[in-house]
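Posting this for the archive.
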Amino acid sequence: MSPFVAAENVESQERPGPYERLRAKITEMMSHVPLRTRITALVMVAVGLSVALASIAAWVTVRNQILSQLDVTLYNHASQVASTIRAQQDDYTQHGVKAPSTLTVPVFEDNEVVYFNSDDVQLGTNPQTTLPAIQPSDADITVAQNGTGHSFQTITFPGGSKVRAVTVPVQPSQFTPGNREAILLAQSMHDTQQTLGRLSLVSILVGIAGIAVAGSAGITVGRAGLRPVDRLTEATEYVARTGDLRPIEVQGTDELARLATSFNSMLTALARSQDHQRRLIADAGHELRTPLTSMRTNIDLLSQVFGSTSEHAAPGASQPPGLKRIQISDADRAELIGDVRAQMEELSVLVGDLVELSRDTKPQAAPEPVNLGDVVRQAVDRVRRRAPYLKFDIQLEPWYLEGDPATLERAVTNLLDNAAKWSPENGTVTVRLSDGLLQVADEGPGIAEEDLPHVFERFYRSTEARTMPGSGLGLAIVRQAAENHGGRVAAARAPSGGALLGLWLPGRPTEEEDPQNGGTAANA
């Protein structure tokens, strides 16, 4: 096959049909129509169609009833005429008198009666009728031939006038046993047509009134139904314009009320996030001010030590105004430089903790299978290198969960660092892991009862802690990691008198098999 033909076939397969194009066009047009207009139009169409269908159904029902009643009346009248004619013919035959060509039966002027036999020979008519002459049809002749049954028909004359006709057989008697005759009785439908015409007019007027009512109902329903949407729209615009995050009023329990409730939840989360940002900025400014002030003092002192006349000054450097060069010993100079470096390191740690806490959300990375026991061992090894003067009493039971290994290791490390900071030299840090609960106890001074509820808050530092290095963010990072993994934290006093900090994480004591490769979900 030629590639051009193949491409044409593919294009023809991908080209949407007329129905799809029409639907897409309607969808595009409706997307530009306001929701209120769409609801009003839908209600108008629905109610209008209902009224129209009801009017049509009523008109058809009444019309059929009128025509059915007309047919019953015609049939009964025709049967009476046939019986009367049969009696008259028998009387003529019995007395040997020839029957007249006109009928002497009780019929109305707007009725036509045709008396004929199976050979389509007319035996009599109604001389008083005002209707045009009617010829029996094949169906009428068949009724005469069979002597049973009947036939109805509607006959339209030139000019538009109509008649309804019925044909019934004239039963033979003992005097004329072989006769095959019938009566055709026709009645003008002028009155019936007038009645149906008035009914049609009434139905049309009712339909128009129904459409008008449908329009009013559509407008009313559109306004009433979208009033909560209008309130919600005004509330969102007010929030966007003013930044006021107070919840909006919720009315009812319908879908719009659920939408308003969800919007309030979003406002609450946004307010909480903004409050978190404000507190973080305020606390960060307060915490950064102390190391920055100390560092500035030391740098000013170093500027006096390493003035422009110093051999250590950079080429082209000038001495800061108002500062005089001072002389200090090499030991003091080394101590001063060490203080600056320590303050820079403290500042770096503080900035790192601030960045960690500023996320305030669950980790974006996909959770991984984690053995919490391995995480604790790695954290203990790291802290042991920083605090070689301490002993670590470790008892760990397996505990597996899905999470972020780096975040969990940082949280555990912060717990151990806190214990190492408060433990005396040659003290023991006790680490226990059982059923997902990690407990870290030290032999330090412990935590005061009034401070226990606050130790995991950001930047919270007790009176004793203010004399120790740290930013007050380490335990807050532990709580955030626990909450992001569905866990919780707690603080108490250890039996030894020190602090006892706990971290619980949901998980399981055994590994789960990986159905894809037959391996385990976590590495023990």
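Residues 269-355 form one domain. The two ends are 60 Å apart (CA to CA).
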